[in-house]
Specification:
The protein contains 2 helices and 3 strands; from the N terminus they run αβββα. The chain has 107 residues and is α+β, with helices and mostly antiparallel strands.
């Protein structure tokens, strides 16, 4: 069980601490997406929770509810894309789960 095992154990602990910090940062992260030139704005948290929707009064038309629904979907997609771009490569190894490629030889 020599020093190699201890080294890997230490690397695993460091990875665990790094992941905890990243999860905290993600929880505090917020991004906005918009559609219709800012008529609809959506705010997402780093863990993709929908935090807020802002709709400008001039885009509310009872005769075109479907248009408003489309703007909301488009704004959400815009925010999700921005979130993805902002967090890309944040995980060790650049993998979606960060493991096992994040620390070659660890697993």
């Amino acid at each position: 069980m020599g020093s190699g095992f201890q080294k890997k154990k230490k690397q695993a602990k460091q990875l665990q601490e790094q992941m905890a910090r990243m999860q905290e940062e993600m929880a505090n992260l917020e991004v906005e997406g918009s559609a219709g030139g800012g008529l609809v704005t959506v705010t997402l948290s780093g863990d993709q929770d929908l935090k807020k929707i802002k709709i400008q009064p001039e885009c509310v038309d009872p005769e075109d509810v479907e248009g408003l629904e489309d703007l909301i979907v488009t704004a959400h997609k815009d925010a999700a894309k921005k979130l993805s771009e902002k967090t890309k490569g944040s995980l060790p190894g650049g993998l979606p789960g960060g493991l096992p490629g994040g620390f070659p030889g660890l697993f």
